[in-house]
Amino acid sequence: MCLAALKHLPKEFPTYVEPSNEEICDAFKKDPQGFEERFLAEYSSDYSYAPLPILLNATRNYLSFVRTCCASTQRNICFLKERLQHKSVQAFAHLSNKACALHALLGENKTKVSYLIKFTQQTPSLPFENAMTLAGEASKILSKCCASLEENCIQNELKRHIAHICNTACAGNERIRTCCTTKDDVGKYLCIYSLPWAKRSEAPQSPSSIDEGVCREGGEIDVYRNIFDVARIYTRAPEALIITLYSASQAAATDCCDLVDVRRCFAERDSTIAPLQALVEKGNEICGEYADHTYVEFLKRLKANVLTLLPAGTLNTEDQVSTLLEQRIGYATKCCHLNAPPIYCGIQQLMSQV
């Protein structure tokens, strides 16, 4: 039981690379059992946080069409048809693994914050109360189902959750409304989960601030409202940056509310929180450039502005310029989208570039 309960940190970037059709069938024909065992070990290593019933369904599904297609005279056509037919099964395994890994990493409360950010950045017009309700539901589903052996736990819970999203959020969002016309609930979930950020607001705005008001009864809602405001204003800021800001704000509330001079404590904490807000704005700026332009145009603009990104007074060697370009490109391609890797895309990774 102890060994069965062991968990390693989630892999933010998968390491399993599927071989070509020919390589798959050659290996399968030489040693069918060995092929299946190696595949199960490698695939399960990448998807170790997916609920077991979903993982079993995905692996059985894959091995089934390998057996079928490797015996077919039209092998490549068979693989193409089977992969298209079962694409949603593999995608659902991938996304449930990401969601459950995030829940394991952050815990239930920060997972709620994560979904609050997601829903707000996808639909900035969504009212705060609705965004909070949907975020709380999503977090509770993962708490209930990620470690469950119930066959259709996530699917059954998603049915109610997706209905609530479609009834709540689609009225003011054409993209979500389109997703809600998909026939099955898993399809709706995959569509909504995969939606990109909404366009950023051009109006100058400032998020609500965290002060001594959070110490009143029920005042903890102010921290969530602040994060909601930040996500609505900076719709392109990577989620990991905003979660770091939430952690700092929550810590300030925890540490300051029991003190005699509460106002002074919050004023002192502002010197810690303000730089994090600046980094959220910087992440929003980088990812806004990446999201608003084609990849070729993004590279062109980045190369044109790279010298302004280097510290003043430094010797701008070709290596420095090249390194900064690689860092910015790597950060943008991995982090400038919703559901980006939470550890890699955090504050430390961004600070190394600014």
UniProtKB/TrEMBL annotation:
Associates with membrane-bound immunoglobulin on the surface of B-lymphocytes and with IgG Fc receptor on the membranes of T-lymphocytes. Interacts with LRP2; the interaction is required for renal uptake of GC in complex with 25-hydroxyvitamin D3. The keyword 4Fe-4S does not apply. GO terms for cellular component: blood microparticle; cytoplasm. It is found in: Secreted. PANTHER family: SERUM ALBUMIN-RELATED, VITAMIN D-BINDING PROTEIN. InterPro entries: ALB/AFP/VDB, Serum_albumin-like, Serum_albumin_N, VitD-bd, VitD-bind_III. One of its GO terms (molecular function) is vitamin transmembrane transporter activity. This is Vitamin D-binding protein. It comes from the Eukaryota. Residues 1-88, 89-274 form the Albumin domain. Keywords: Actin-binding, Disulfide bond, Repeat, Secreted, Signal, Transport, Vitamin D. Involved in vitamin D transport and storage, scavenging of extracellular G-actin, enhancement of the chemotactic activity of C5 alpha for neutrophils in inflammation and macrophage activation.
